[in-house]
Structure formats: structure tokens, C-alpha cells
Amino acid sequence: MLHRSYPTSRIVDKYEIQYGKIVTFMYPLSHFPTSFVYLPLNNFIPAMSLYDKIQTTAAFIQQKVKTQPKIGIILGSGLGGLVDLIEKELELPYGQVPNFPVSTVKGHSGSLVFGKIGGTEVMLMAGRFHYYEGYNMEEVTFPVRVMKALGVHTLMVSNASGGTNPGFTIGDLMIIKDHINLFPEHPLRGPNDDRLGTRFPDMGVAYDHELIELARQVAHEKCITVRSGIYIGLQGPTFETPAEYRWLHTIGGDAVGMSTVPEVIVARHAGIRVFAISVITDIGISDEPVTITHEEVLEAANAAAPKMAALVAGMVARIGN
To answer: What pTM was estimated for this model as a whole?
Structure first.
């Protein structure tokens, strides 16, 4: 008879071995398929559901902050400058938040920031999670679920993206008016929990028309040039080939990136209204091959960040009032 002790938890099918328990096996594990390993029932606890994880994380955050945010903001690559405009109450590194993944991408600082912009209480993600990092869609979109549990009713999303529209230039701000989802996994795939949203959410107005109009008004007042277009979401992490850029434009895309779409789908599933904007950091439509690096993307995003921050801050102030 073989005895093994696990110092950390381990998932077996839909159950979890509790920390520090002694697990007894009749034979070495190699003698059995994983699904047939014998484990005493008193060593099992049910795996936590998505709903329970959300509630656990929200309760943890509520113990830490007095802020009751109504607006959530997700910052993309190189766009963390908006953090400087917040009257900060608290900053929580992702690693300290229960059930949160940790961002692994350069340009994503990785923390939740709570405070006020222009007197309006906000919750800001300085850095996001991407599917290409190896996270599943539940993990990628988990922060949006937590935002909803904390009372957020409006989500503002930013990203750095590649231009597929030949009329765009590097540094342009593009208001996203619709998207095309080309991710290989859908964030709502699997059993639906009606407490989180309906089984078949409508995406006819994924991006709120009133928020888009507000963005145009604020941009005009602040003399910020904005464009609008269709965003295409791809898995990544490779940048697109010239042929892919041309094809993406042919099917209706004006910009392409590796984020945003899953977060927007989950936000709409949860009943959160959405505004999203891209900084065009490279132009893929060209007769000559262009080499794109992540460092160049960050440089272009950082250059456009002040315009983005001014626009978002102006919108937040209006929404809050």
C-alpha cells in the first residue's frame, strides 16, 4: 500500500484534494488511468463554481476598498497612463486577488486600481489577460465578471491594434463600433449559469451607441481626432502576415488585435454596457513587407496615451454626472 502526501491542492476530475491531506492509494498511480485512481471520499471537496469564485473574489475586494465603482476600465498595452489621472484609494496587484490570473505581457503592469476620476468612482485594470498567454476564456474574462458583482454598469475597454484600413495612420484613435470574433474559443461556451446572464445574449448592439456619441462629443471639445471602425479579434501571439492583413480588411475589419472581444462578449452577457477604443500602433496594409515588434507597438501606444487618457477621463466625468 502506497501513501502519498500532497503539500498543495490538486484537481482530480471535478474535485479537489484538500491541502495537507494524506492520500492513500492501493497501487502506484501508474497502474491506473487518472479517472480510476482510488481516493478516500473524505479527501474530496467540490470544485468551486464560476459563480462562487466571482462572489469570493468580490467579497475579498469589498473588504479592502470603500469605493463602489460604477465604471470599469480595462487598459491595454502601453496605455497605463490613465492610472496617473486617478485619485487612488487602493491598488491591488493581481497576485494578491483570489482567483485572479497574473499578466505575463510586457506593458501590462498587472493590478486593480480603485479610486476616482473627476469625482466618479472607478475600477481600473492596469493590464489584462490574453488567450495566447495560455489562459482559458473563463480566466481571460473573469475580471469582467467580478466588476459586475461589484456593481459596475459601464465598461470602457482600450487596446493597441494593427490597422487594416489603408486610410488609417499610426497613432490614430479608433472608436470600435462593432467587432468580428475570430477567436478559436467562445467565452460563453459550456453550461450557462442564469445568475450570470442569459444563454443566448443578443450582440446586435455590442458597443453602446450613446457612449459612442458621447466619445465623439468629448473628442470634438478637446480637439482630439477620432476614427471609427470594425475591430477583429484573433488569438495571437503572432502579428499578422501581409496576406492576413489584406484578408481581414476584405472581410470588413479596420483594425485587428488579440484582446477585447472576449471581454466585451462577457460584459454584454452580464448586462454591462460597453465602450471600446483602439490605438492604431502599426499599419499592416502595405505594398512592402513591414517588420512589427512589440516594442514598437508599445512606443506607438505610449505616444497616443495622453489623447486616450484625456478622452476617457472626459467621458467618465460625463457618465458620472
So the answer is: 0.82
